[in-house]
Design goal:
By secondary structure, the chain is of the alpha+beta class. The chain has one domain (about 1-95): Glutaredoxin, CATH 3.40.30. The chain contains four helices and four strands, in the order αβαβαββα. It has helices at about 1-10, 25-40, 55-60, 90-95; strands at about 15-20, 45-50, 70-75, 75-85. The chain has a four-stranded mixed beta sheet, with helices on one face. The chain is globular. The termini are far apart.
């Protein structure tokens, strides 16, 4: 995943990474919100889910201490980051600010 991850975040399109875990309740609440964001923004954003239990080195590299943690990348650079559940409109505004 690591080499592939670097190519994914190099995109000129904003890439929202959702660091999550199967056992995480808030992560389950966030999943349908992310689907709505993707449905509304379409090709203007890529949303990638990364399971921290299966990708511990990557989670460690980005210092993910809690889940869900959302990190927005564009051109390989981190633009924004937050842990916890956000509402659809908040996420859309953040992504559009960095488009």
């Amino acid at each position: 995943m690591k080499s592939n991850f670097k190519s994914i975040i190099q995109s000129d399109t904003p890439v929202l990474i959702d660091f999550h875990a199967d056992w995480c309740g808030p992560c389950k609440m966030l999943a349908p919100i992310l689907k709505e964001v993707k449905a509304e923004l379409g090709e203007k954003v890529k949303i990638v889910k990364i399971d921290v239990d299966k990708n511990q080195p990557l989670a460690s590299q980005y210092q993910v201490r809690g889940v869900p943690t959302l990190i927005l990348f564009k051109g390989g650079k981190q633009q924004w980051r937050q842990s916890g559940v956000l509402q659809k409109n908040e996420l859309i505004n953040i992504i559009q600010q960095h488009s």
